[in-house]
Amino acid sequence: MTDMTASPVQADLPLVRRLEAVGFRAWPAASVVYDGSWQVRLTGSHPSKRLNCIVPLDPSDYRDMDLRLSKARKRFADYGRSLVVRETPLAPPHLIRHLEDDGWQMFETADVMIGDLAHLPLPPTLGHLPSHDIGRFVDACIAVGQDDAALKPALAEILSSIKPQSGFFIKENPRHGAVAVALCVQDNDLAGIMSFAVSQTVRRQGIGSEILASALRWARVSGARSAWLQVEADNEPAIALYRQFGFRKVYEYRYWRKG
């Protein structure tokens, strides 16, 4: 099995490839095409950056960069979107230097973290049972994140497209309704934590730990040996919580756009 304790300083490229692959399956784009090893992901119904970006997946694939970026820009424009490149440790250094020289700007960084479920102390029973009601979970996500209700059809479509086994976790209380959500996607021995959010009205009350522990417990019972997640690099409270659960950073990715 791949070593899940790789140093975040020098990325373990086979591990990066595996986590990128499960990440794509856990949050599937509506349209995926390949230009060489560059994955071009587009989803007209939802603005998520992970669903609308180019992801280069081979450090040696940087030929004809201008032409390929120009073709991708046209494809993104057809969807009414600006071209975004997602840089992981698999991106060609030549391409990133080209973007810098051509006036592109890096505008967001996220950490990819993993944790060992086998030795993680978790509650003996599930505090929250997973739901499989997509509509209820989408409504809860929108309420917790105070998002635009118009995104409901798009979120429902994305969740319906996830092929691996998934569990929707929702924490509700009589006063506020849904106050925390988490999506756990189990892909063989890896479980991904997605859409994890806690309402601003109830933060610092242990609710995030409660719902995350339930999701991880369910993943372990279902056969997962490790868990992974993605978090914005400047989200210090979330990162502190994940570290309490034994997660550690293994690599980061960055988004680039021009102008």
UniProtKB/TrEMBL annotation:
<keyword id="KW-0808">Transferase</keyword>
<keyword id="KW-0012">Acyltransferase</keyword>
<dbReference type="GO" id="GO:0005840">
    <property type="term" value="C:ribosome"/>
</dbReference>
<dbReference type="InterPro" id="IPR050832">
    <property type="entry name" value="Bact_Acetyltransf"/>
</dbReference>
<keyword id="KW-0687">Ribonucleoprotein</keyword>
<keyword id="KW-0689">Ribosomal protein</keyword>
<dbReference type="GO" id="GO:0016747">
    <property type="term" value="F:acyltransferase activity, transferring groups other than amino-acyl groups"/>
</dbReference>
<dbReference type="Pfam" id="PF00583">
    <property type="entry name" value="Acetyltransf_1"/>
</dbReference>
<dbReference type="InterPro" id="IPR016181">
    <property type="entry name" value="Acyl_CoA_acyltransferase"/>
</dbReference>
<dbReference type="InterPro" id="IPR000182">
    <property type="entry name" value="GNAT_dom"/>
</dbReference>
<protein>
    <submittedName>
        <fullName>Ribosomal protein S18 acetylase RimI-like enzyme</fullName>
    </submittedName>
</protein>
<feature type="domain" description="N-acetyltransferase">
    <location>
        <begin position="124"/>
        <end position="259"/>
    </location>
</feature>
